[in-house]
Amino acid sequence: MKRGIPIPTPAHNDLFFATFDFFAAFAVKSSPRKLPTNSACTYSMQKLIIKTRQKREILDITDKVEAALGNGTASTGICNLLVLHTTAALTTADLDPGTDLDMLDAFEHMIPKLRYRHPHDPAHVPDHILSALVGTSIALPFEKNNLVLGTWQRVVLVEFDGPREREIVLTVTPEK
Fold first, then answer.
1. Is the Cα torsion angle 74, 46, 155, 90 positive or negative in sign?
2. How distant, in Å, are the alpha carbons of 64, 103, 155 from that of 150?
3. 54: burial class by Cβ within 10 Å (0-12, 13-18, 19+)?
4. Which one, of 86, 61, 40, lies nearest residue 170 by Cα?
5. How would DSSP label each residue in 2-55?
6. The whole model's pTM is what?
7. What does DSSP assign to residue 120?
């Protein structure tokens, strides 16, 4: 299956589409992939695999993301993360002891108990809604292969329907 992915080019105001075999792009875990580029910018793409262990949990992936940034060609730029699932999310969080459980409890209370119409599994709908509300992508600056985060901020994967093996695509837009 071929897909076109819009990639903004810093040198132009338009978009171009890098078309590539979606599955072949991720054949090797955490290996840089160069996408077609113009002469002004280089893009790289990596895939991270995160195994979750519980139905709902919050996992700190900051170190894995920074390790992947160290594999790339740019030391400064913007790191874009996208979880390729509709029942997981990405965000930043303070992970003091118990904060992850507080967040999961708050998420649980955000979703009303309704009669959902999802044809696959109506009980599964709250997981999709939470993923959409929290978000499946995040963009973060990095410098010298380290994410630029606040003192207590960590990058987290929020699992709403585990345990599963989750795929996260990491792309980098380097500083000129």
1. positive
2. 18, 19, 11
3. exposed
4. 61
5. EEEEEEE-TT-SSEEEEEEETTGGGSSTT--EEPP--TT---EEEEEEEE--SS
6. 0.75
7. S
Residue 71: both structure tokens together: 């594999």
Contacts of 96 by beta carbon, 8 Å cutoff, 6+ apart = 152
pLDDT in tens, 120-164: 888 889 999 999 999 999 999 999 999 999 999 999 999 999 999
Distance of CA 132 to the CA centre of its chain: 13
- Give residue limits of the domains in the chain: 46-174
Sign of CA dihedral 157, 165, 19, 79: positive
Q: Give the closest residue to 7 by CA, choosing from 32, 39, 42.
A: 42
CA distance 5 to 11: 18
Could you give the strand order of the β-sheet that contains 57-60, starting from the edge strand earlier in sequence? 57-60, 153-159, 88-94
Q: Is the pLDDT of residue 30 over 60?
A: no
Integer CA distances (angstroms), 71 to 32, 74, 130, 137, 169, in order:
7, 9, 32, 21, 14
In CATH, which superfamily holds the domain spanning 46-174?
YjbQ-like (2.60.120.460)
Q: Are 168 and 83 in contact (CB under 8 A)?
A: yes
SS3 percent helix, strand, coil of the chain, rounded to 5, is 20, 40, 40
